[in-house]
Amino acid sequence: MGVQTTKINNRRYLGNKYKLLPFITKVVTENCGNFTSFTDIFAGTGAVASAYTNKQLTTNDILFSNYISNTAWFSPEDFDWDKLVCFINNYNNLSSIKENYMTKNFSDTYFSHDICSKIGFIREDIEEKKIAKVINNREYAILLTSLLYAMDRIANTCGHYDAWRRNVDLSEQVLEMRMLDAEKNLNPQNQCFNIDSNKLAENIKSDVVYLDPPYNSRQYCDAYHLVENVARWQKPEVFGVAKKMDRTALKSKYCTQFAPKAFDDLISKLDAKYILVSYNNMENKGNDRSNARISDEEILSSLKKRGKVQIFSENYKAFTTGKSDRNDNQERLFLCKCQ
């Protein structure tokens, strides 16, 4: 029973570092020596963590949708490939479905009415399978991540959900779930978290800790509210043109004026041999919302309290919301060898 597979990088996501992996892994390999544990504390969709599945891996993200994806890719729990493929094939062959939360709130916006009905049915069925213990936690995460990736491939957006494109024919949308090309036999000590990064820092220890905090004022929970809504499946009321839910609890302080203080606090709490910080050079180069919340001086000041710092850079055109058109973007890695 065949089904297409998908890899971890097959999602559009702001700040995704998949294309920068050769640069990041080269810096780590040449400067961090032999190490056994790697932590990605702002993991996003897990692109950087995916390079270290041969280590004891810890991931964290404030968005539940990213936590679920990281659990799918990195949890040490076993999963039944054939069982999941069977479920996915059944989902892909669904026909007419009843009205549900998705049709009532999102029909003919990001998705057609028909696609919304399928998303709503599939999401509810995945939840019921988990409650009935038909699937374990990782299998639940794999099915849910497969659904989120399928939504992302066809969403009537530019890659985020601040708005949908008008006057678009949605009748050709086809929701096709694919099996995740996920690894088995991962390190049994792997852990995935969905908590505030500064709180997590107090309770973990890792040889290498990688930090890729939000750069600017654009909140990820605003850009991916619909994905987060489907992942959490609490069926909240939505409002406004973009059909957003209440995201108050998901706002990151790293997108605000308090970012430098939060960053300094985080660095001070980390128990690590090496701290690697990824941050681009948009300090005062884009429009106001694109400008970096933390200056180079502030990054260096915090890191130098912990040890010796080196800086590495590479030119890079990131996936953005399209509001900045600069061609001299640089991704920098600040590497601190902790004393």
Automatic annotation (TrEMBL):
User: Which keywords does this Swiss-Prot/TrEMBL entry list?
Assistant: Methyltransferase, S-adenosyl-L-methionine, Transferase
SUPFAM superfamilies to which the protein is assigned, alphabetical: S-adenosyl-L-methionine-dependent methyltransferases
Q: Does the keyword Amino-acid biosynthesis apply?
A: no
GO MF entries: nucleic acid binding; site-specific DNA-methyltransferase (adenine-specific) activity
Q: What is its EC number?
A: 2.1.1.72
Q: Give the GO terms filed under biological process for this record.
A: DNA restriction-modification system; methylation
Q: Which reaction does it catalyse?
A: a 2'-deoxyadenosine in DNA + S-adenosyl-L-methionine = an N(6)-methyl-2'-deoxyadenosine in DNA + S-adenosyl-L-homocysteine + H(+)
Record's superkingdom?
Bacteria
The entry's family comment says:
Belongs to the N(4)/N(6)-methyltransferase family.
Tell me the protein's name: site-specific DNA-methyltransferase (adenine-specific)
Task: Name the source organism.
Answer: Treponema porcinum
